[in-house]
């Protein structure tokens, strides 16, 4: 079987220079993350606060941590000190709490916490995120200049779990067109708003065709998760 290093190298080759790989390491032990790190991977994604809390101190400081899971308001304060990006902002309350905590802790004065707004693009009830209408209403009411310690850098979405590629294709195409519209309507002169996070182990090739700038891949790098 091929190694983590070989799988990473194959993926980097496929992604090229314009797409960044988030290695989704949830449920995998620290030694596997270390192996990926030693191979050169620097961006890791986790979806549970406690697990992230445990792993961060055990790994090198130059890792860029992305939070990709559903956040409870009262847990936000734990991840604010070390997270680079939160990809899963799925309601106004969470965005405001991240901003509040980042301000309170003095933020990371050197840089703001980057935020992606998660959009619900599949037909599955279980997936989180703003609906399209909620997203535009929220952005319409938000005073972007009020964000001092955070910055909105793009959108994130998950396609449906299905073998039907045309369904996935349609959902990623839809997210891309929503991204273009949101960029045009709310961030026209803001160069920071440029990230479109879509694509996982089973569907990243489709996401790449639709302009993903970040892909979140776990299983294909680390193998199956043990829950
Ligand atoms: C687990 C997870 C992934 C990675 O899934 P794989 O199928 O293992 O690549 C990507 N995005 C989110 C939000 C996840 O929770």
Topology:
Blueprint: H1 4-15, E1 20-24, H2 30-39, E2 43-46, H3 49-55, E3 64-67, H4 76-79, E4 85-89, H5 92-104, E5 113-119, H6 132-141, E6 150-157, H7 165-186, E7 195-197, H8 204-209, E8 214-217, H9 219-222
Parallel strand pairs: 1-2, 1-8, 2-3, 3-4, 4-5, 5-6, 6-7
Helix pairs in contact: 1-2
Residues 24, 26, 47, 68, 158, 200-202, 216-220 line the site of pyridoxal-5'-phosphate (PLP).
Descriptive report:
Helix 6 (132-141) links the parallel strand 5 and strand 6. The protein is 39% helix and 18% strand. An eight-stranded parallel beta sheet has the order 7-6-5-4-3-2-1-8. The model has no long low-confidence stretch (mean pLDDT 95). It has 227 residues and is of the alpha/beta class. The protein is globular and about 50 Å long. It has nine helices and eight strands. It binds pyridoxal-5'-phosphate (PLP). The site of pyridoxal-5'-phosphate has 13 residues, from strand 8 and helix 9.
Helix count? 9
How many beta-strand segments? 8
Overall 3D geometry? globular
Roughly how much helix do the residues carry, as a percent range? Answer: 25-40%
Head-to-tail CA distance between termini: 22 Å
Strand order of the largest sheet: 7-6-5-4-3-2-1-8
| Computed CA radius of gyration, to the nearest angstrom | 17 Å
**Subunit organisation of the chains:** single chain
Derived structural class: alpha/beta
The chain-level mean pLDDT equals 95
Bound molecules: pyridoxal-5'-phosphate
Major pleated sheet: 8 strands, parallel
Percentage beta strand: 15-25%
Poorly predicted ranges (pLDDT <50, ≥5 residues)? none
- Along the chain, the helix and strand elements come as HEHEHEHEHEHEHEHEH
């Amino acid at each position: 079987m091929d190694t983590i290093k070989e799988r990473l190298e194959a993926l980097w080759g496929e992604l090229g220079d314009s797409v960044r790989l988030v290695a989704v390491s949830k449920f995998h032990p620290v030694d596997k993350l270390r192996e990926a790190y030693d191979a050169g991977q620097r961006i890791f994604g986790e979806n549970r606060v406690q697990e992230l809390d445990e792993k961060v101190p055990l790994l090198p400081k130059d890792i860029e941590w992305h939070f990709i899971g559903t956040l409870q308001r009262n847990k936000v304060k734990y991840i604010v000190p070390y997270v680079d990006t939160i990809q899963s902002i799925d309601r106004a309350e969470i965005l405001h709490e991240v901003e509040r905590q980042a301000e309170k802790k003095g933020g990371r004065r050197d840089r703001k916490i980057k935020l992606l707004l998660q959009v619900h693009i599949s037909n599955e009830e279980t997936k989180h995120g703003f609906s399209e209408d909620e997203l535009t209403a929220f952005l319409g009411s938000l005073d972007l200049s009020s964000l001092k310690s955070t910055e909105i850098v793009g959108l994130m979405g998950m396609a449906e779990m299905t073998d039907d590629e045309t369904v996935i294709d349609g959902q990623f195409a839809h997210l891309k067109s929503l991204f273009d519209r949101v960029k045009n309507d709310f961030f026209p002169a803001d160069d920071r708003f440029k990230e479109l996070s879509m694509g996982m182990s089973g569907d990243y090739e489709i996401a790449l065709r639709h302009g993903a700038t970040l892909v979140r891949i776990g299983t294909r790098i680390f193998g199956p998760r043990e829950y």
